[in-house]
């Protein structure tokens, strides 16, 4: 299971959800911006079954800050990457390439810190990356809703974290299993597949989520897209 945001560590019940998942034998990955983590979160992250993930836009603080909108975010994120490694917290970092620049320099920076699980993805046209555009299926990987789904804080279910406009049910109203097997999810999967351009795939990396062996965003996956 993955906890993602926004910033999931700010949710008042996120630690409770993670502990419940651990108690039921599930692994939990927390996808955080690593700007600030409370002592309680650091304690939880050191428990068996917990993993941590973050996005790193550039080794250049100014370029990283331009993407996050916070001038000091690079310093905080980088320091907490170091702290996670020092504490032995399993960590993966996704380099989100804005324009293709600095990728190798950023990878070298992370490797110098001791990060071994490094992926590269691009900014996808959803959420903050949409720049005001209406969402559509063209930028999705094509495997949304197949073996994975996203549950929002209000219980709304969608095929994945990038397709939240395609609401397929709510866990407060019916069981998750029923939603995943229901007609709304089936229709969403059909629309996602129909919206793919075979001549211009959104994820050209060979190890992509359109392969059955890939579980993007979930430990121990090394595949794109990065959530």
UniProtKB/TrEMBL annotation:
Domain 4Fe4S-binding SPASM span(s) in chain numbering: 144-193
UniProt cross-references to SUPFAM superfamilies, sorted A to Z: Radical SAM enzymes (SSF102114)
Region annotation Disordered: where it falls in the sequence: 185-227
Low complexity bias spans: 208-227
Pfam families with a match to the protein in the record: SPASM
Positions with biased composition (Basic and acidic residues): 187-196
Matching InterPro entries: 4Fe4S-binding_SPASM_dom, Aldolase_TIM, Radical_SAM_PqqE_MftC-like, rSAM_sf
Domain of life according to the entry: Bacteria
Name of the featured protein: 4Fe4S-binding SPASM domain-containing protein
